[in-house]
């Protein structure tokens, strides 16, 4: 039975006091204990928020990025080891904003995935096509390439720890959500590619999240899709009531 997960990516939002208040509100509004809630605040709040959530088994904390090497002269960067030391158990890797604004490509992301795993932190690996790719009907090829170049170098035991988040770029922060047909279609494709590479058992246990303008109104139908195991939520994760309603829609 695959774990149900709702993860909130706060991006570059919230001061420390605002973030701590939001966490309290999210804990109160997220009544469904069978869903794992993952909060991804900015790096600087990780330790405080991890401390606040200590002992709550249905809550975990994630970073939004990590550097690809262990340590060294990389001013301003944060390593996977440092992230692990805060109590965070997950790292979002390959978000489209990192790919677009910071030039992160598939091979760099492969290194980040390895670094997270080497530090016992679970990657939430984001992939997805942009609007032009979908218009050109090459969205399956694009996603296949992203998996091949960033994930399929992993040994089965390592791959099986990774969470994959399908986030079509055209749906992120736009208010345009993938239809259930589009989301299920891509998730089914991703699972079948995992099956080809790692076999049935790994593919059936792989957790696949959908991200892209998920809100309290559309979450229920998206989460009802056979191959959708939860969501990666951006904008709606900054409002406790909305995030809680998404969690409770499982
Ligand atoms: C995201 O940034 O990962 C995301 C899914 O954003 P939003 O929910 O705002 O579309």
Topology:
Blueprint: E1 4-9, H1 16-29, E2 35-40, H2 46-53, E3 59-63, H3 80-85, E4 90-93, H4 96-101, H5 106-118, E5 122-127, H6 131-135, H7 139-150, H8 156-159, E6 163-166, H9 180-198, H10 200-205, E7 208-211, H11 219-223, E8 230-233, H12 240-248
Helix pairs in contact: 1-2, 1-12, 5-7, 7-9
Could you state the CATH homologous superfamily?
Aldolase class I
Helix content: 40-55%
Radius of gyration: 17 Å
User: Biggest sheet: strands side by side, in what order?
Assistant: 1-2-3-4-5-6-7-8
Walk me through what this model shows.
The relative contact order is 0.16. Helix 3 links the parallel strand 3 and strand 4 (90-93). With 250 residues, the protein is α/β, with parallel strands linked by helices. The radius of gyration is 17 Å and the shape is globular. The protein has one domain: TIM Barrel, CATH 3.20.20. Helix 1 packs parallel to helix 2 (46-53) and helix 5 (106-118) crosses helix 7 (139-150). The longest helix is centred in the C-terminal third of the chain and has 19 residues, at 180-198. It has an 8-stranded parallel β-barrel with strand order 1-2-3-4-5-6-7-8, surrounded by 5 helices. The chain is 43% helix and 16% strand. The chain binds phosphoenolpyruvate. Phosphoenolpyruvate is lined by residues 9, 95, 167, 172-173, 211-214, 232-236.
